Amino acid sequence: MSLVILGGSSSRPLAFKIAKELNVEFMEVETRRFPDGEKYVRILGDVSGKNVVVVQSMYHRPDEYLMEYFLIVDALKDLGAKKVIGVIPYFAYARQDQRFKPGEAISLKTVTKLIEFAGTDELYVIDVHRHRVEEAEFSRLAKIPVFYLTAMPELAKYAVEHFNLDNPVVIGPDAEAEFWAKIAAETIGAEYDYLEKQRISDREVVIKPKKLNVKGREVLIVDDIVSTGGTMVRAIDVVKKGGAKRVISACTHPVLVEDALTKILLAGAEALVGTDTIPSPVSFVSVAPIIARNLRERYL
Ligand code: R5P
Predict the structure, then answer these.
(1) How far is residue 58 from each of residues 11, 92, 111, 158, 279, measured CA to CA in Å?
(2) Which residue has its alpha carbon closest to ligand 1 atom 9?
(3) Given the CA of residue 174, which atom of ligand 1 is nearest to it?
């Protein structure tokens, strides 16, 4: 089966790496702006009868990248592509997945609907924010098969090998992150836990690991996203105060707004390790092999 990989303007290097891993054609797409600000897209190759993978992360300019994605996918369908497989490594709008206040848009629902409507046949996402929306729900919203991939095993392996971690304990900064901590810990054969808020009295709350003691331990804190860094900084403070000997932070999506990285390092983490779902100064781990492995299993 012939498979072609192309990347929107947020993800060309990643798309190229995936094509190399799979040893399949990488196709160029011309993307630019008209003088009035509208997007222009042109597919520079023959896609007729081929399965085409479109890689487009949704950061740093989610709206622009989404629009570009819709134009690319619809053009591919017009040009006779057999199947269009969307790979959206960082999926924006996932956190607005319900109406928290009356009148709010449920952004995740709108975005997934449009992705399907544009002509996406199948969708791959990586470590999507999952407080409320899980895999089955996502597929139901999008009305197409959605495959969830995770970078946690690769992040954990990288942290252990690169920083020579000795019998580390993996910690999630909150209850939701226990999911990520478990995957990371199981990969490296470590214990894991998450930070829990415990109410001591009407006025006093303590945050500490739910069951494990981190005193004297090397700690790997993992989360899906580091955005402002607030969640990670709080977690570093807690484990440091709990006596952790060393702390390495890791996340799949280094959104890193403002001075998030500086705050994390100042808080006492030796390093922050992220992936290239979003190109950043800490994108040490590539998700290309993870995506390639999954595409190979299904399409080659
Ligand atoms: C939230 O629930 C996510 O899992 C992350 O913990 C959060 O998005 C991180 O955001 P920030 O870096 O702004 O604290």
Answers:
(1) 9, 6, 11, 25, 11
(2) 226
(3) 6
